[in-house]
Amino acid sequence: MFLQFKREVEHVLKAALDKASYEHRALELETSEHADITSRIAFSLAARYRKPPAVIADDIVRNISIPPANRTLISEVAAMGPYINFYVSDSFLNATLERIKAGNTVDVDKRDTKIIIEHTSANPDGPLHIGHLRNAIIGDTLARVLKRSGYRVETQYYVNDMGRQVAVAVWGVSRFGLNTDKKGDHAVADAYIAANRMLESDATYQSEVEALMKRYETGDEAVMKRYEEAVQRCLAGIKASLHRLNIKHDLFVFESRFVRTGDVARIIEELKRKGELKYEGSAIMLQLEGIDKELVIQRRDGTSLYTTRDLAYHRWKSARCDRMIDVFGKDHELVSQQLRKALILLGVKVLPEFVIFEFVSLPSGSLSTRAGRYISADELMDKIEERAYEEVDKRRSDLSEDKKREIARIVGIGALRYDMVKVSPEKHMIFDLEEALDIEKKGAPFVQYAHARACSILRVARDEGITVPESADLSLLRADSEVALIKKLSTFEYVLENAARELKLHPVARYARELAELFNIFYKNCPVLNADEELRAARLVLVECTMRVLHDVLSVLGIEAPEEM
Predict the structure, then answer these.
(1) Which of 163, 251, 375, 446 lies at a C-alpha separation of 20 to 30 Å from 297?
(2) Are residues 274 and 209 in the same domain?
């Protein structure tokens, strides 16, 4: 309902500006602590019309005409100094609950826009670690937000099966074998780490790795078979880890396909014709306007590089979507700039948008797969689930062992996912599992508990033979905590719209926390089951609507909503 209210505000404000003869561009609407929607437009108009903002705001308000109460969601409008404040009507509050009760928590239209999101794309040389987790969780949550906002979304994992790191892993598997008792990605990592140690101790082995890379690129069948075995084993383990996180990619795209089809060779030839090139021996580098560092597009030995294959991949993607979004770590910021400039040079019409995230670490410090100093995603998930189990076991001795483990899994993975998106991606974060699981810190367990509490109220009501009525006198819900909760329910669609437009996820996490907080205040101040019959009926509707939106926002965050904790 909030988007409908906002559209009404836009309509009456535009009409008032025209009536008062103020030319304008943006209406500068935003939510506020002092109103349901406020406009800052008077600030922008002040310099142009040489009047104080407060005078302009008063002038605009005098020209605003609000439709009759039965035809509008606006109750009143007032100038507060330079701000123009709009307030929702009682009909807005009632309509919000009626719509949610009917099963419509978000009012969005299907959009005829296909978006491809590439995320995770970790090298198949070992298990995911915490840095990969932030990438995967941001990418998956972004896909969920965009889908819920009406877009057609496809998620892709770009598999780097031709880089040097994978070649080292394949070489290591050939020399040291694979431990079949281990999860595939961990077994490949053991071989990769052992291979790196051998290469560091004796550089003469480097030529074997380089020969392996060249044979794979030229299509040597025996080498291709060795690659496939190592890469697929590693990917199977990575997919299993992602499954634990409630993440599934629609498509895995192997970079080798673009070499085999000749796409990479065509890209190189086209860049030779169109670009400003530099040569270092037989290596070819592309100088891009506005970027100091050249983009190497071909090695001295004639083999392609990841960046060249990435250009072919993006041109291939561009023909299959209306928008493409890449989730990259901060270390790929330069690459993203080079990639975009080179694609423009190639005449690609659909250019990538980038969500760049800063690194995440554990309190113990940084991680490195190459040196074998890392905590895998699996180990981290095991730790957080075990720690969650300790809390569940302490609080719920009445539950069966299986139920405790299930709740611990839901809470632990939820805490991990929530903490990865609650911080703006451009900020470095330290993931502390104790804080993530602390319900007082108001992370995922806090939101999940609010959902479980709503489910418990409804369950107790059913056990007592009380059902949520099809219709109730919703005008009874006018206590401060009731009104605040209803207004917060109404803004879910507004939060999603902004998140989809700005590709920012932390406001969605913040909304989930704030909704849980307001529900807890309502629960404390407004008895539900002990209220008189008419008020109880109305409050049960409010509890059910809150439960639905909490479930929906948790789902958008990729977090399960338990019915008991």
Answers:
(1) 251
(2) yes
Domain count along the chain: 3
State how far the Cα of 82 lies from the Cα of 79, in Å rounded to an integer: 7
Residue 75 carries which side chain, given as an amino acid letter? S
Asked if 234 and 185 count as a contact pair (C-beta separation under 8 A), the reply is yes
C-alpha separations of 142 from 147, 327, 425 in Å? 9, 10, 12
Ordered DSSP codes for 435-448: HHH-GGGTSHHHHH
Closest CA to 554 of 446, 462, 470: 446
Angle of CA points 485, 489, 494, to nearest 5°: 135
Is-contact 76 67, C-beta < 8 A?
no
Counting beta carbons within 10 angstroms of the beta carbon of residue 58, is it exposed (0 to 12), middle (13 to 18) or buried (19 or more)? middle
Q: Is 32 exposed, middle or buried (0-12, 13-18, 19+ CB in 10 A)?
A: middle
Is the pTM for the entire model greater than 0.85? yes
| Domain hosting residue 83, numbered range | 2-88
> Which 3 state secondary structure label does DSSP give 368?
strand
Max CA pair span of the chain: 87
> Which residues pair with residue 353 across a beta bridge?
325
- Sorted by sequence, the CB contacts under 8 Å of residue 102 that are 6+ apart come out as none
Tell me whether residue 15 is in a domain.
yes
Q: What's the confidence (pLDDT) of residue 173?
A: 93
Q: Is the dihedral of CA 371, 377, 379, 383 positive or negative?
A: positive
Question: Where residue 292 falls among pLDDT bands split at 50, 70, 90?
Answer: confident
Do residues 531 and 435 share a domain? yes
- C-beta separation of 34 from 80 below 8 A: yes
CA distances from residue 318 to 174, 296, 315 in whole angstroms, order as listed: 37, 22, 5
pLDDT recorded at residue 367: 45
Q: First CA to last CA across the chain, in angstroms? A: 31
Instruction: Match 């590693």 to its residue by tokens.
Output: 234
Domain boundary among 361, 388, 403: 361
1: confidence class by pLDDT, cuts 50, 70, 90: confident
By C-alpha distance, which of 564, 447, 449, 563 is closest to 508? 447
- Calpha distance 317→310 (Å, rounded): 10
* Backbone phi and psi for residue 149, each to the nearest 5 degrees, phi listed first: -90, 5
